[in-house]
Amino acid sequence: MNSVDVVVVGAGQAGLSTAYHLRRLGFEPGSGFVVLDRAPRPGGAWQFRWPTLTYGRVHGMHALPGMELTDADPDRPSAEVIGDYFAEYERAFDLPVLRPVHVRAVRDAGDGDGGLLVDTSAGEWRARALVNATGTWDRPFWPRVRGQELFRGRQLHTVQYQGPAAFAGERVIVVGGGTSAVQHLLEIAEVAAATTWVTRRPPVFRTDGFGEVEGRAAVAMVEERVRRGLPPRSVVSVTGLPMTEAMRRAREDGVLVRHPMFAALTPDGAVWPDGHTVPADTVLWATGFRAAIDHLAPLRLREPGGGIRVHGTRVDRDPRVHLVGYGPSASTIGANRAGRAAAHDLRILLTAPRPAAAEAAVISSTWR
Ligand SMILES: Cc1cc2nc3c(=O)[nH]c(=O)nc-3n(C[C@H](O)[C@H](O)[C@H](O)COP(=O)(O)OP(=O)(O)OC[C@H]3O[C@@H](n4cnc5c(N)ncnc54)[C@H](O)[C@@H]3O)c2cc1C
C-alpha cells in the first residue's frame, strides 16, 4: 500500500492549485502528497468540453497560481488551450499527478491511527488527510420529467455535446437557463430546422458589468446554502447571464426566446400545461451538474439537508477532509483561493501538535 500525508483527488484548477501550495509549503511530491486524477490527460474537465467552446468564448478564466496563461489563441478550443497550459504547469512545478487513477471510495482506516484509506483503480493509498477537488463534470444532472421514456427522439446532456453539426436539420428543444444552454442554443440555431428554449425560471440577463462586488455577493449566496448544510448551487447559477452581442442578435432574431418548462415529453416532442405541443427530434438537457463526491460516501459527511457543511474548505464532520472547488469555491478564482487555504490548513494540522487545529480553522475560513 502507498502511504502519503495528503491525497489530492482531481487535477483540475482546484486540485492543481492545492498541489502548488502544498509543494510551496514543503510537502514532498510523492511521499508527502500525490494528486490522483481519473481523466486521461491534463486539463481537468476542460479537456471534455466541446470543440466550439473556444478559449475566446470562456468567460473569466483565472490563471493558476504562479504561472500566467499568455498568448492563448482565442480561436483555439479551450479544451486544447487549457489542456496544454495545465500540462505545462504540472511539469513546471513538478507536481506528482497520477492518471488515469479513479478514486472509488474513501474511508476511515479504522485502526485508531487517524488515517484514511483511499481505494482506487490503481490500488490503495493511505493518507493522513485528503483534499477533494473532483468538480462536477462527472455528475451531470438530468431532471426527471413525465413521459421521458416515451420520447422517440434523442436525449443528450451537455456532457455529450460536441458542437452543432449533429443537429443539422433537426427540431431541437434546449432545456436549461445557464450559459451552456445559451451557447448550445445559439450554435444549434444556425443549422437546425427549429429550436425551442425552455427554462424552469425566467433567466436573469446581466447588462451591467460583473465586477468584484457582484462576484462576492454571488459567492455569499452559495456559501449561505452550504453553511445551512444544503447542497450547493453552482456559482455560475447565481451570477445571471451576461448579455453578449451574439445574444442580443439572437434575441432580435427570435432565437433567444425563453419558454416555461413543459409539462411532459410525448413520443414526438413536448406538451405544455395549456395543451400546446412542440414537435422535436432531440431534447438537449443543459441542466447542469452536481458535486462529484459519491466516493466520499463511506465517510458520512452529509448533513440532514443533503449537503456537506464546510468551514472555509474544511469539512465540519471530518477535519482531515477538505473540499475545494466545491460550492462557493466552484469557479476558477474560487478554486485557486480554496487550494491555497486547504494547503495552509493541512500544513498546520499535520505538522503541529493538536492545539494548532484551532489556528488552522481560522486560516481555512479565510480562503476568500
Ligand atoms: C461549460 C463550462 C464552462 C465554464 N466556464 C467557466 C469560466 O469561464 N470561468 C470560470 O471561472 N469557471 C467556469 N466554469 C466552472 C469551472 O469549470 C470551474 O470552476 C473550474 O474549472 C473547476 O475546476 P475544478 O478543479 O473544481 O474541477 P474540474 O476541472 O472538473 O476537475 C476535476 C477533476 O477531478 C477528476 N475526478 C473527478 N472525479 C474523480 C474521481 N472519483 N477520482 C479521480 N479523479 C476524479 C476529473 O477527471 C477532473 O480532472 C465552467 C464550467 C462549465 C461546466
UniProtKB/TrEMBL annotation:
<dbReference type="Pfam" id="PF13738">
    <property type="entry name" value="Pyr_redox_3"/>
</dbReference>
<protein>
    <submittedName>
        <fullName>FAD-dependent oxidoreductase</fullName>
    </submittedName>
</protein>
<dbReference type="InterPro" id="IPR050982">
    <property type="entry name" value="Auxin_biosynth/cation_transpt"/>
</dbReference>
<keyword id="KW-0560">Oxidoreductase</keyword>
<dbReference type="InterPro" id="IPR036188">
    <property type="entry name" value="FAD/NAD-bd_sf"/>
</dbReference>
